[in-house]
Design goal:
globular, binds S-adenosylmethionine, about 325 residues, twelve-stranded mixed β-sheet
């Protein structure tokens, strides 16, 4: 029986966080101080993750995204991706990175069989990037993006989270990148998950606001469809542009009824909804020697606790126990 939840959503996508560590400290994502990091022993080993994947795939998980924290900081990540690519039945393995280490690792990722990448970037201005991330690595990230482009990763998605007063003045500049380059630039609404003092409804630039800023500067956007599932992104193009512009709107237009994903945190919790703290511990039974049938039972149990939708409208100031870097964004 495939993984179908009580709301008739078929789950086929697993986001795997391989670490809670990150080489950036983005102001809206992770508090700069007071974060207790997981110990080595608390983090699932690659072998443990692969075992969970081997149980999940026959249940209908066909797509996996590797994330973190920053996945490229974990030692052995390329070998892990190579091993994931060899799991029969897994059609799609992808990666989300901040790009800091990408220039040196992009070629290895090609060799591991990774065809496409999502790269997070919140500013095109090096000094502003440093203020947002606490790191002077804008040039390294840009080198990584250019290297990935050169090596033919496609699509190459650049994810930007516009926050009022932080980087909302760069929305049109990001959109402009698509004119000459085949980037897929996506604007993601800022969610109340992360450094808890930063979020407010006012700080969130809605997709509609981002779109009208772009249209004011660059003219009307035309709907875009690649023929493939766009996931949660509504896609558009500046007529004649090489790239694509997408909007992901978890705040203003939740896409919960189409949600097909589960998350596995670095410390081995199945988190069925990004915006709900209800999780299932899979590490303890795994390390106590449970059999595959028990892992399957826990995966199925996680469908029972997957909420029908998020409840941000009812609790707009709702805060979550984990930051995005600790869940796996
Ligand atoms: N380090 C990798 C990266 O930078 O892509 C993967 C993890 S990071 C947590 C994944 C994504 O989550 C990034 O694009 C980041 O901008 C986004 N993110 C973090 N906190 C967020 C928030 N409160 N609202 C919306 N997106 C957020």
């Amino acid at each position: 029986m495939p993984l179908i939840d009580p709301h008739k959503r078929r789950i086929d996508y697993l986001r795997i966080s391989v670490t809670d560590r990150c080489n950036l400290s983005c102001v809206y994502c992770k508090p700069r101080t007071g974060m207790k990091m997981l110990s080595h022993a608390e983090i699932l080993t690659y072998e443990e993750i692969l075992r969970i994947v081997s149980v999940a795939v026959p249940l209908g998980i066909t797509r996996v995204r590797v994330t973190g924290g920053e996945p490229l900081v974990r030692r052995g990540i390329v070998s892990f991706i190579t091993a994931l690519k060899q799991v029969a039945g897994l059609d799609d393995v992808s990666l989300t990175t901040n790009g800091v280490l990408l220039a040196d690792m992009a070629e290895l990722l090609v060799q591991a069989g990774m065809p496409r990448l999502n790269i997070s970037l919140d500013s095109l201005v090096p000094q502003k990037f440093s203020r947002i991330t606490g790191s002077d690595s804008w040039e390294a990230v840009w080198r990584g993006i250019s290297r990935a482009e050169e090596l033919g990763f496609f699509p190459l998605k650049l994810n930007m989270v516009p926050v009022k007063g932080m980087n909302d003045d760069e929305i049109a500049d990001f959109a402009r990148l698509t004119l000459k380059r085949r980037f897929h630039v996506r604007f993601i609404e800022f969610m109340p998950i992360g450094a808890s003092d930063r979020w407010s409804r006012d700080a969130c630039v809605t997709s509609e606001e981002a779109r009208s800023i772009i249209e004011r500067e660059l003219g009307p956007l035309a709907p875009f469809s690649s023929g493939h599932s766009a996931g949660p992104s509504s896609n558009f193009q500046i007529p004649g542009a090489r790239g694509v512009i997408g909007f992901i709107s978890p705040i203003t237009h939740h896409f919960c009824d189409a949600c097909r994903r589960l998350r596995l945190t670095a410390d081995g919790k199945i988190r069925p909804c990004l915006l709900s703290d209800t999780e299932i511990d899979i590490t303890s039974p795994l390390r106590a020697g449970c059999d595959d049938a028990e892992l399957e039972r826990l995966l199925r149990l996680s469908l029972e606790i997957k909420p029908e939708r998020h409840y941000l409208d009812e609790t707009p100031g709702g805060r979550f126990q984990r930051t995005m870097s600790k869940i796996g964004g």
